[in-house]
């Protein structure tokens, strides 16, 4: 009975208490917490069944993406290089470096470019309705 009570006690401890233990083999380091996109829009998830697509992008130095928008949430993590994203309507620039987490703007025309001298490596995560083929609309 005593091992059961000890196990029950340990399960009731907050995860942060266990994660903060210096001898723990697991360390959790928050990267980002937000409820808004880069431009301040609230994050709204698709209704119904959702499909998650994870992609790795490698963008050459100086390369520019076409003007586009995303109808559903898209998240990015900069693994290497530097990214400049421009709002196509206002010209506002957002800069990202390795270790930055990006919550892309929703339904706003924008484009990005590798603003550095080394290849830009991004991990991209899209959340979209299950039957969607793409989360990117290129401006005509």
Any overview of this molecule?
There is one protein chain. The chain has one domain: Jelly Rolls, CATH 2.60.120. The strands form 3 sheets. It has a 4-stranded antiparallel β-sheet with strand order 1-8-3-6, with no helix packed on it. It has a 3-stranded antiparallel β-sheet with strand order 5-4-7, with no helix packed on it. Helix content is 11%, strand content 34%. Strand 4 and strand 5 form a beta hairpin. It is globular, with a radius of gyration of 20 Å. The termini are far apart. The protein has 140 residues and is mostly beta strands. The protein contains 2 helices and 9 strands, in the order ααβββββββββ. The N terminus is likely disordered.
Compact overview of the structure:
With 140 residues, this protein is mainly β. It contains two helices and nine strands, in the order H-H-E-E-E-E-E-E-E-E-E. Mean pLDDT is 88; it is low at 1-13.
């Amino acid at each position: 009975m005593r091992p059961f009570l000890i196990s029950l006690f340990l399960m009731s401890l907050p995860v942060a208490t266990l994660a903060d233990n210096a001898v723990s083999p697991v360390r959790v380091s928050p990267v980002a917490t937000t409820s808004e996109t880069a431009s301040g829009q609230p994050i709204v998830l698709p209704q119904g069944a959702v499909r998650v697509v994870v992609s790795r992008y490698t963008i050459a130095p100086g390369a520019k993406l076409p003007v586009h928008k995303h109808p559903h949430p898209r998240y990015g993590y900069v693994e290497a290089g530097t990214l400049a994203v421009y709002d196509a309507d206002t010209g506002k620039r957002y800069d990202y470096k390795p270790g930055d987490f990006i919550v892309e703007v929703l339904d706003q025309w924008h484009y990005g470019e590798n603003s550095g001298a080394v290849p830009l490596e991004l991990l991209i995560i899209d959340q979209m309705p299950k039957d969607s083929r793409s989360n990117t609309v290129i401006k005509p």
